[in-house]
Amino acid sequence: MKAGSEASPHASRPGAGVPQVTGGRVRFSFDGKEIEAEPGQSVGAALIAAGYRSWRTTRHGGAPRGVFCGIGVCFDCLVTVNGRPSQRACLTEARPGDRIEPQEGAGRDDLAC
Questions:
Q1: Does the keyword Oxidoreductase apply (predicted)?
Q2: How far is CA 62 from CA 12, 43, 82, 90, 106, in A?
Q3: Cα–Cα distance measured from residue 85 to residue 107, given in angstroms and rounded to the nearest whole number
């Protein structure tokens, strides 16, 4: 298509390919505090929106960690979800009633299925 000859085929479809938000906000707890998220939002995104920047500490030295890559590659954003450690906050969808806890170090590999 020549520049300026026609509109993009996607121009008539606002939001094409973008998930639509429906329903009310999702509530879950983090470290005993209630957090709200948009439906479909990741735990990591909800924590950042709530003002958190870190929620895990490293095994050696206790350095703070939170979302780094945001796509599940780096494992810096690990949290414990409903008693299950080593869950990546950037990939875990916030669900109503979930109990999310900060994680110290690498968690327990025997529980991280």
A1: yes
A2: 51, 22, 23, 21, 11
A3: 6
The two structure tokens encoding residue 29: 């707890």
Number of Cβ within 10 Å of residue 74's Cβ equals 14
Taking Cα atoms as reference points, which of 91, 98, 95, 103 lies closest to residue 55? 103
Here the tokens at position 2 are 């020549």
Q: Return the amino acid letter for 77.
A: C
Convert the pLDDT of each residue in 58-86 to its tens digit.
888 999 999 999 999 999 999 999 999 99
Report pLDDT digits (tens) over 13-28: 555 554 455 578 999 9
Helix (H, G, I), strand (E, B) or coil at 103: strand
| CATH architecture entry for 26-104 | Roll (3.10)
d(CA 16, CA 18): 6
